[in-house]
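Hello forum,

I keep getting stuck at the same step: I have a sequence, I want structure tokens, and every attempt I make locally crashes halfway through. Rather than fight my setup again tonight, could one of you with a working pipeline run this one for me? It's a single chain of 168 residues.
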Amino acid sequence: MVELTTPIDEESIASLQVGDTVEISGYILCGRDAVLPKVLKMIDEGEADQLGVDLQGQVIFHTAVSLAGVGPTSSNKLEIESSIAPLSKAGIKLYLGKGQLHPETIEALDKYNSVYAVIPPVTALLGSKTSEERIIAFPELGMEALHLIKVDKYPAIIGAAHGRSIYE
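Reply #2:
Ran it on my machine without issues. Output:
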């Protein structure tokens, strides 16, 4: 088990291999198809600093945050998967979600020294490992707003790293 704490440094990401199991602690961002295009627009317009969170070394969990808890959504939805390359370029190091990514996305992860980890849908387990949450942008999207949550030992499996995929 590899223990990671946010923000995650370049060396830690470089050492991860497909199939590694990780536990993530610290603050992570939560966003999915409704909010990620808005975050990309902020990056393109040079306004990412308005999020109040440094994207360098950050983690994005492809999920919504609701009273039912958090659980992964499919990372290969167009709006989500198309955000991975530009967000990696902006400093995001790790993505949490579910589903198989396209080869072009796996190549982009490799190019920017970022990785993708899959989380089985275990909402109750993850809820017990989440200690804080707050909306940091786009509150009008409700549970699909951009959230910042504090986690302790979130379990995941590296699904794509260094040009390889667990789905090969």
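The mean pLDDT is 92. If your local run keeps crashing, start a new thread with the error log.
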